[in-house]
Amino acid sequence: MSQRIVVAMLLAVLVSGCQKKAEGQTVAVVNDDEITSSELNAELTGQNESASGTTQQARTQALDRLIDRRLLVQQAKADGLDKSPEFLNKQRRATEDLLINMFVSRKVNTSQVPSPSEISRYEASRPEIFTNRETWTLNQIVFPIPKDKALAQKVSDAQSLDQIAQILTAAGVQFTRGTRKVDTAVFPHAIYTQIAALKPGEPFIAPGPGKAVASVIAGREPNPLTPEQARQVALNAMKRDQITNFVQDRVKSLKATAKIQYQSGFGPPKK
């Protein structure tokens, strides 16, 4: 057999080997880009579609979505977007988030159910969510955060919403009044404790981006949970706390041994 024939046969084998086919674990090929059965199953799971029952219709629709996405991705790559700094930064952030979530899920055992006594203690430590859960009606004043420190202090020292209104009016600061309802369960425990300790009619102020909201509790309505609801809320909250505490402790220990260099002006403030 001549060398020319051998080379031709080798090229034919290589070319045929590069042509991907929709067979086996490959359910479709889009411009030589494979879509596997595991990707299809993940798409079905993500869309809460069963792989049984109306299987053919569900699979067809899910596969069609995958093909549409793959075509758009291929076009985006053809436009060079996968090489852009914006994409690379977002890709790195997404990869980091995925790795962190996998790391935490493997290190933290959230499948172990706390004992009834542990759940009871947790519920007792969060009255704003459980035993004393209420819906508050708040009378509010929204105003720009004063740049004048003296004026800001006067507002902070005010003992009623009307006093705040008078102080702002005298200073020529425009404000708006309003009313809203809020579930006490949304408050962080430390904040709830401070607000609950206020005298009737005494305002509390929450600063925001450029504006602040002064509020007074004008009404309280009980908003209790059933025992089963309370147990589920407690379990979810305890799992979140477990994860938060693990992450904080691990980051603290890792920082203590890490070598971190800062460019001038970017480091943390000196103690």
Walkthrough of the structure:
By secondary structure, the chain is α+β, with helices and mostly antiparallel strands. Among the domains are: 23-102; 134-222, Chitinase A, domain 3 (Roll), CATH 3.10.50. It has 9 helices and 6 strands. It has helices at 3-18, 37-46, 55-78, 85-107, 116-125, 149-157, 161-170, 189-196, 227-257, and strands at residues 26-30, 33-36, 134-144, 176-183, 204-207, 211-222. The strands form 2 sheets. A 4-stranded antiparallel beta sheet has the order 4-3-6-5. Helix 2 (37-46) crosses helix 3. The protein is extended, with a radius of gyration of 30 Å. The N and C termini lie far apart (82 Å). Residues 2-17 have low confidence and may be disordered.
Highest-level CATH class of one domain: Alpha Beta
* Run of helices and strands: HEEHHHHEHHEHEEH
Which percent bin holds the helix content? 40-55%
CATH fold call of one domain: Chitinase A, domain 3
Strand arrangement across the biggest beta sheet: 4-3-6-5
